[in-house]
Structure formats: structure tokens, C-alpha cells
């Protein structure tokens, strides 16, 4: 009998942008699955407590928090090095840190457009290249990049962000073909609207009374909806998947009454 293996126990993972939101959910989920997690954000005061919470809990995985801005190559190199030294290797890299502001195309300055490309695309490039070097030396690994449905479908006032997230999808597909022989699987997750502090800040959407996860319509997503798919993608169960983008958006946009109520379709 075949039994599906979604396990990550004993592996070492890095999750960027894990002081809150989707990244925090991914880190907590992987740690609960027994992986040791290196987590970062731009401020130790914000990411440190997440590591403390994991380490004070009864999950099997341990956490190490490091202050790191993913837009700075040297900081990413130092972050990855510290995690490799602490936990003795690197098996999983989740490039989650990202963000946006919402503005019409004509109002976005060159520097504004560049800041979103730099954070989302170059932040992912740094994470992939630095982690990839360690993984190649160790005989392989798994990388998951966090894109967005905005990289797949047009939406007004998201030109910079959609361009960046579409770039992440192409980056995933292209590098997956290059690093296959190194034993590195690279996949991408494209979330729909997920309830996070960043969404509350950027879009003003804070759905406090969330329906349960087993209800697919009339709700936006939980961080755990993305974390569970990330764990699948880095697990042995996804051994035959690389270069793929998995969309996680609940009921397809035209039918999701919650997203309609929020004025998003
Ligand atoms: C139906 C399904 C739909 C799903 C939609 C889901 C969408 C969710 C997307 C998410 O990513 S959620 C998480 C979002 N959270 C955040 O993005 C955090 C909040 N944002 C920020 O912190 C910042 O905007 C940034 C993205 C991190 C950029 O930071 P940076 O430090 O690089 O920016 P600044 O130095 O402040 O500015 C650089 C440049 O950008 C211009 N700019 C900034 N904000 C705006 C704006 N609102 N409108 C126009 N331009 C803006 C700013 O003026 C600077 O340009 P110059 O003035 O120097 O030319
Ligand atoms: N929420 C949603 O609906 C969707 C989100 N996404 C994507 O999912 C990812 C996470 O989004 P979400 O959880 O909503 O975002 P949040 O804004 O809630 O959290 C973003 C996280 O990234 C960290 N971060 C931001 N910039 C940097 C940086 N330069 N270096 C290191 N860390 C950084 C923040 O930490 P700190 O501020 O402490 O540095 C924070 O931990 C992003 O890539 C986003 O684009 C995609 C589709 C939909």
C-alpha cells in the first residue's frame, strides 16, 4: 500500500518575511511539522517574538530569528550562513517577503516602480541564488517562491506588483529547468486574497469574522491555506513537481461572494 508522505521533520527551512502574515504561518506550520526554521524580517523586534513563540511551544522544530532585509544581498548571505551554521544545512528555502502599494500606473514614479520590483523580484533572486549555492553543495533542496494571483490575472492599480509577481512565476519556471540536475526542485504558490496585517494596511480589508477553513466560498484566505500548500510542495509527496505555480484562491474569483462583497471583482 502506498502512503502519502507530507513530512518535513528533521529538515532545515528558511522563511523570509516571517514576522507576520503568510510567512509567519508558513514558519509555524513547518516547525509544527518538525522542521527547524530560520526566519527573518527587517526588524528583530518583530521577528524575534515569532521565534520565541515557536521555541516556547511544544512543537518539534526549533526557530532562529535573524534581522535581514531581502533587498540587501549581503544581508541575505549572512542570514543563510547563520542558519546553515546553526542547524547544519539547508533543505528548504521559502521566498515569501514581498509587498506593494496600490496606485494607478500613471502615478507610480520610476523609483516607486523600482521599489516593488526590487523587493519582490530581486528579493527572490537573492534568496534563490544564495540558498541554491548551499543546496548544490549539499546535493539538492527545495525552493518555494510566493507570487500572487496578480501575477496571473490583470487588476487595476497593481501594474508594478503584477509585473513583479509575473516575473517571480517566470523565474520559478526557468530556473527549475536549469537546476533540475542539481537536485533542486523549485515551485511557486500564487495566493488569492489572504487575511494578513499587510492586507489590512494596504487594502483596508480586515475580515474579523472569518468563516471556517472548510468553507470555500464567502471567505478570503487564512495564512494556513498557503502554509499547507507550501508544506506539500517541499515534501516528498511533491517529488515529481518542479517549475509549477499552484494557485490558492478559494472559489474562482468570479464566483467568490466574499471577494465580490469586498468590491474586488
Ligand atoms: C481578488 C484577489 C486580489 C488579491 C490582491 C492581494 C494583494 C496583496 C498584496 C500584498 O502584497 S499584501 C502585503 C502588502 N503589505 C505591504 O505591502 C506592506 C506595506 N507597503 C510598504 O511597506 C511599502 O509600500 C513597500 C511596498 C515595502 C515599499 O517600501 P519602500 O521603502 O521601498 O518605499 P518608499 O521608500 O516609501 O517609497 C519608494 C517609492 O515608492 C513611492 N510610493 C510609495 N507608496 C506609494 C503610493 N501609495 N502611491 C504611489 N507611490 C508610492 C514613493 O513615493 C517612492 O517613490 P519616489 O517618491 O522616491 O519617486
Ligand atoms: N495577503 C495577500 O492577500 C497576498 C499576499 N501575497 C504575497 O505573500 C507574501 C506575504 O504577504 P503578507 O503576509 O500579506 O504580507 P505582510 O505585509 O502581512 O507581511 C510581510 C512580511 O514580509 C516582511 N518584509 C517586508 N519587506 C521585507 C524585506 N525587505 N526584507 C525582509 N522582510 C520583509 C515583513 O516584516 P517586517 O515588516 O518586520 O520587515 C512581514 O513579515 C508577499 O510576498 C505578498 O506579496 C500574494 C498574494 C496575496
TrEMBL record:
Keyword set, alphabetical order: Fatty acid biosynthesis, Fatty acid metabolism, Lipid biosynthesis, Lipid metabolism, NADP, Oxidoreductase, Peroxisome, Phosphoprotein
Protein name: Peroxisomal trans-2-enoyl-CoA reductase
Pathway noted in the entry: Lipid metabolism
GO process terms (BP): fatty acid biosynthetic process
Quaternary context: Interacts with PEX5, probably required to target it into peroxisomes.
Keyword Oxidoreductase assigned: yes
Catalytic activity: (2E)-hexenoyl-CoA + NADPH + H(+) = hexanoyl-CoA + NADP(+); (2E)-dodecenoyl-CoA + NADPH + H(+) = dodecanoyl-CoA + NADP(+); (2E)-octenoyl-CoA + NADPH + H(+) = octanoyl-CoA + NADP(+); (2E)-tetradecenoyl-CoA + NADPH + H(+) = tetradecanoyl-CoA + NADP(+)
Protein function: Participates in chain elongation of fatty acids. Catalyzes the reduction of trans-2-enoyl-CoAs of varying chain lengths from 6:1 to 16:1, having maximum activity with 10:1 CoA. Has no 2,4-dienoyl-CoA reductase activity.
Compartments where located: Peroxisome
Major localisation: other
Gene Ontology molecular function: trans-2-enoyl-CoA reductase (NADPH) activity
Family classification: Belongs to the short-chain dehydrogenases/reductases (SDR) family.
Highest taxon in the source lineage: Archaea
Organism: Halorientalis pallida
One Pfam family of this chain: adh_short
Family annotation (PANTHER family): PEROXISOMAL TRANS-2-ENOYL-COA REDUCTASE (PTHR24317)
Protein EC: 1.3.1.38
